Amino acid sequence: MTRFDATTEPTRIELVADAIAAHRERGSAATTLTVEPTDADREIGHGAPWIQYFEGTVALDCTDYELEQLKKLLDDFPSFSIDELVTPEEAEGTHARVTARTDDERIGQFVDRVFREVFDRSEGYRLWVAEI
Known about the structure:
single chain, alpha+beta, Gyrase A, domain 2, 7-stranded antiparallel beta sheet, 7 strands, 28% strand
């Protein structure tokens, strides 16, 4: 990979697909995607949201509200399903694992919509590949 960030929907989708392909080629444990934290993120104290992809799974941590938004978003993505929800006693949120039975571009579309609709990012947010 030669670029690690993108700010438009088409380039973010392409970036996610490229990061997943690079992750597979390198045989890494996961690829991690993130965004800049907003004031609201800092206010609730959990920093910038992130998404990891590994072995056909999209993983993310979310608040109760974000989890409800994620469940609504899945209506638009029938090839995705929640596989596991873990809510540790010491945490205020839920770790969600979503199985993705589709191609890398569709995963890119899903990831972009998660950042916009679940994590409430603007249309022009900057997506970063933090780890491959």
